Amino acid sequence: MKISKTIYLVLAILFLISFIYSLFDEETNHKVLFWETNIWVYRLFRLAVAVLFMKSYLDLRKKQNVSE
What we know:
Structural class: mainly alpha
Number of helices: 2
Transmembrane segments: 7-24, 39-58
Shape: elongated
Keywords: Membrane, Transmembrane, Transmembrane helix
Strand order of the largest sheet: 1-2
Oligomer: single chain
Distance between the termini: 22 Å
Strand content: 5-15%
């Protein structure tokens, strides 16, 4: 299944917004699925996913520019 590179960019932006929004949350724990996790672990997870999607987008863009 081929995913458009724009989808990666949109997901990266959404996860980055989610990370920034979580910085204004004053909770010390966050519930992820069925587990309570430290808010900083949750924030690190959101930031890592955003960076991963952005890296995927940039790699696809670079690959497309090289092939042109």
